[in-house]
Description:
Early light-induced protein, chloroplast, transmembrane helix, Chloroa_b-bind
Amino acid sequence: MAMQSFLASSMTLVSGTTRVSQFVPSTYVPSLQRNANFRVRSMAEKGEKEESSPVTAPSLTPPPKPAPAAKVSTKFSDVLAFSGPAPERINGRLAMIGFVAAIGAELASGQDVFTQLSDGGVPWFLGTSIVLSLASLIPLFKGVTVQSKSEGLMTSDAELWNGRFAMLGLVALVFTEYLKGGALV
């Protein structure tokens, strides 16, 4: 009986540790009864009548559909913010193009990335960067989200991961060529 009252006491557990308390008979433990008159009230929308109803068992109706997504900000500072939609996507797209172009040119000519850039590759790099950046920014400034255009296999998350791997691949290619002292292939 003493053990039951010790375990039933509300003072037994404090902060996840057992606390030594007085042994109180279980008749002194307050009983928890439900209040049948408990009502839930909410603020009514403008023009709606306020109602109060008693709490009932949860209904089996499906939850309401979520509200439409809020309009996306098209401000320059929001689009190009550190956690905004543009920086990682643009860098990833440039890295994907750059990695494929670097490997393709290396296979065709046998030159490493540094030689490709020094032999006239800088204007191509700058031109491609400007065109792809503008092509990526224009829809974002018009309010089009990347998630709205992603379906099936070509999702926005897949593009992010491909861009991340391309960035790592391009850095690994340049670092390997630097350590090796020449082209990878």
